[in-house]
Design brief:
ERIP6 protein; FAM194_C; 2 domains; single chain; 4 helices; 11 strands; about 25% helix; four-stranded antiparallel beta sheet
């Protein structure tokens, strides 16, 4: 960056390359994006929430509350659990100097612009899975992670209720307001994870109690 702080790092980890974009800070700089040559890429909002997440099958674009704005599948994806959804071009700015352009699985570009000069990094890759047996095992959440998700949802609900109290002092008005769609969606997702995850019945009951409170 013009400040002298490190902006983009490219490192090798065993047989793959990783490109990391950092925020413009001298110390404890947060990671704003990670691009891996195995097709797993993630971009983050300034507050740390996931913005864009991609893998060998496709990707999804999320808002800052965690709700999915859109999703897509790569054209060469043979194994897919759902309908093929084409990608619409995506252009985002991670900060005032770094932008990301996504046109395809192998057409992902990081643009760095500062002091009238520009550098571009092609971080796209062509990774294809044609055999179900080659798919990585599904990620399973542990008990602690599920409890944290449940408490996070509880806190978001309390904040939403607090906003409702400030905007609508009357209980009658407040009771008519439905919770935001993203809270309902996250509630359903956590309850589904409770069913599919390998956790004890005690933790499963605790998570459901926290979520349904």
């Amino acid at each position: 960056y013009p400040s002298g702080n490190l902006a983009i790092i490219v490192v090798r980890e065993e047989n793959r390359l990783i490109c990391i974009v950092q925020e413009d800070k001298p110390n404890n700089a947060e990671i704003q994006a990670v691009f891996k040559s195995n097709g797993r890429n993630t971009c983050y909002y300034p507050n740390g929430a996931v913005w864009i997440n991609m893998n060998i099958h496709g990707g999804q674009y999320l808002d800052q509350e965690g709700s999915r704005v859109r999703r897509w599948t790569w054209p060469n994806n043979i194994v897919s659990s759902g309908p093929n959804v084409p990608l619409s071009p995506i252009f985002i700015s991670l900060n005032r100097h770094v932008g990301v352009k996504i046109l395809g699985q192998d057409k992902i570009t990081i643009s760095f612009l500062a002091m009238g000069q520009q550098a571009k990094f092609n971080v796209g890759t062509k990774v294809q899975v044609s055999d179900v047996s080659l798919l990585p095992p599904p990620t399973r959440l542990g008990e602690d992670e599920l409890l944290l998700l449940a408490f996070r949802l509880r806190i978001l609900r309390l904040f939403d209720r607090l906003r409702g109290c400030l905007n609508f002092p009357s209980n009658e008005q407040r009771d008519k307001i439905k919770p935001p769609a993203y809270l309902i969606t996250q509630t359903l997702k956590i309850l589904q994870l409770c069913t599919t995850s390998d956790i004890s019945d005690e933790v499963r009951s605790s998570v459901r109690e926290i979520v349904n409170a």
